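Contributing new records

If you add data, match the layout below exactly. Sequence lines come first and carry their own label; structure lines follow with theirs. Keep one chain per record. Anything else will be rejected by the validation script.
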Amino acid sequence: MVTDFGVAKALTVSSDERNPDSLTSLGIALGTPSYIAPEQATADPTMDHRADVYSFGAMAYEMLSGKTPFTTRSPQAMLAAHISEKPVALITRQPDVPPRLNELVMQCLEKRPENRPQTANELIKMLDQIVVPAQDGETPADEPTYVAPITPSPDSTRIEKRVGWSQRGNPRPE
């Protein structure tokens, strides 16, 4: 689980007109430059939860490719890239990424919030539908290998047994 309550708290405090001593204010970008959404980088006061979908995309991009979507020398240049540049397709940096996963991560990194998945639940459903090949490159015809579902399902036990892990991250005893 990844959380960052500092930004949410800072935004709440900064928008409170009763707190004139705030160290932050509206119109100032808050966040980690590698993962910040374009609307966050421009301090758009109408920013909403879809900025988190963008940040998820940036984090997933790095987890799958080993690099952030925009690698630059300065935080300012990175913020500018999030606002104006399209990242190199994930599948270009990591050809083994399944095409549908590549499409989903790149969709999360869309500049316009309305072009991204609109909710975390929508994103989870899309992730749950992605099928990946087995480690040996072959998938038995009668039983496809799935990315372990994020949401519990009746098939979770079967999938955990096949993949060899449990929800707690511990190997399942045979």
